[in-house]
Amino acid sequence: MKLKNIRQWGKLLFIPVIITVTLTSCSTASTSTATTKATSVPATASVTTSQNSIVTPTAVPTTPLTTQTASTVISTATSLAVSSTTAAAPTSSTTKSTSSSPNQPPPGNSPQPSIPGSGTSSTVVEGTGAYTQSANSVTKSSETFTATDTDESAIKVTNSGVLTIKDSSITISGYTSSMDSASFYGLNAAVLAESGSQITLSNSTITTTGTGANGAFATGSGSSIVLSDVTINCTATGAHGVDATNAGSLTLTNVDITTAGDGASAAIATDRGSGTITVTGGTVTTSGTKSPCIYSTGEITVNGGTMTATGSEAVAIEGKNSVTLNDTTISSAKSWGVIIYQSMSGDASVGTGNFTMNGGSLTAAEGPLFYITNTDAVIMLKDATLSAASGTLLKASAGDWGTTGSNGGIVTFTADNETLKGDILCDKISTVTMELKNGTTFMGAINADNTAKSISLTLDKTSVWNVIGTSYITILSDADATLANIKDNGNTIYYDATASANSWLNGKTITLADGGILTPG
């Protein structure tokens, strides 16, 4: 997902840059040199990419420093120029090298080479905590936890520690020095559980105002956070409400989440290494651009609740991952309703993305309700209310990701007891397999421009296709051999007479009930 050509949907990229900063203090004339990873840009700096995208971060608190010159060089395919007169004060964070994720793309395969983690190695920044706990089991109540420094969590539990907190307030205002470490390992998160630790938080509030300041973050196998009756408010870029990575997990019950950052502030997110999040009840509101309600590179299930994205799509699924919505009301104001894609950034394994919806409603004010690109996708709908203001139900096509010529969408779409309205669009390198069953009604045209590589439609006897325009179908399967469940409205439907699956039509032109025809073409 992009902040355009910088970072995409639920996550953020602070593009690697070359930075030289000279700071002078009246108290000393000494000079030293330090090298750090330049993943975050000082407050007054502007970063200009070759795509003319500019990011100006929110002001970062600074403190006086002795004279020093810091030179950082990180290779990148994009030429950048940065000028600054102010730099953030050094923190107590440390760094370590780590190997890249095993599911990273081959070199040169990504259309955005500066996406975090797309290289062969990365540097992990180790943050601090206002309250830290290693191992042991602790219970706290009616307390205030505050963190203000760069890369500082309010609560950080490690080494299989167990912490229970209730009736408390948690606030952080510090900024992350590494958006990669914030996104992948929870650097600068308000509440952080790692290395098999467990945190239970109830009847409390979490507030973050710094970039990369996630609300609650669980990372690593066995690490978990359980939230109930909690309010989370994150206002800056790269600040998700909750996030799970590297097999971490979160369970939310009656949790209200608000995010306002542009470009990378999904309310409910998983990131590199996958994670599992289960949500019951609560409300979610995101107002930033490219900041959906849900961003999945793992397994996310939502039961009930209301979710609204006013500046973004509602749901993004990357790669071989899933989102399941049960009786959930969710809507988007920008881009599309649900996108299923593969960015090749290394954040998600290549494979089939799954979107399942049982009951509830999905509404998109712009774009197709479902957009699939550069991946395989399975969409399963049952008893849900759907609405696309654009008039496009589904689009499968090449987009901004993948290798040109092989980056289309391959979609299996199943509707069970649904009322669907909107056209099906598909380009020459994409395929759609569509099944309507158990009383489903579909009103729309299929492949009206005859651009699809392949489109198949299967109807059972109880389902109806209400045709509203000329349509081109590769394969038609209908349990009603009389075709009485196709309401043609005088339109023409073309099918591929050479496909063996259409042999039951005998290559004939058939006049339909309302004067339209089903004919080879």
Could you walk me through the main structural features you see in this protein, from its secondary elements to its overall organization?
This protein has about 525 residues and is mainly β. The protein is built from one helix and 49 strands. A hairpin with a 5-residue loop joins β48 and β49. The longest helix has 7 residues, at about 180-185. The model is unreliable at about 1-120 (pLDDT under 50).
Mean pLDDT equals 82
Number of continuous helical runs: 1
Q: Can you summarize the main beta sheet?
A: 22 strands, parallel
Distance between the termini: 38 Å
Provide tags for this entry.
single chain, 521 residues, 22-stranded parallel β-sheet, 49 strands, elongated, disordered N terminus
Helices and strands in order, then pairings?
Layout: E1 19-23, E2 33-34, E3 47-48, E4 54-55, E5 68-72, E6 94-99, E7 121-126, E8 128-134, E9 137-141, E10 144-147, E11 152-158, E12 162-166, E13 169-172, H1 179-185, E14 191-194, E15 198-208, E16 216-219, E17 224-234, E18 242-245, E19 248-253, E20 256-259, E21 268-270, E22 275-280, E23 283-286, E24 294-296, E25 299-303, E26 306-309, E27 315-318, E28 322-326, E29 329-332, E30 338-341, E31 352-358, E32 361-364, E33 370-373, E34 375-382, E35 385-388, E36 392-396, E37 409-416, E38 419-421, E39 423-426, E40 431-437, E41 441-443, E42 454-459, E43 464-466, E44 471-473, E45 475-478, E46 486-487, E47 492-495, E48 510-511, E49 517-520
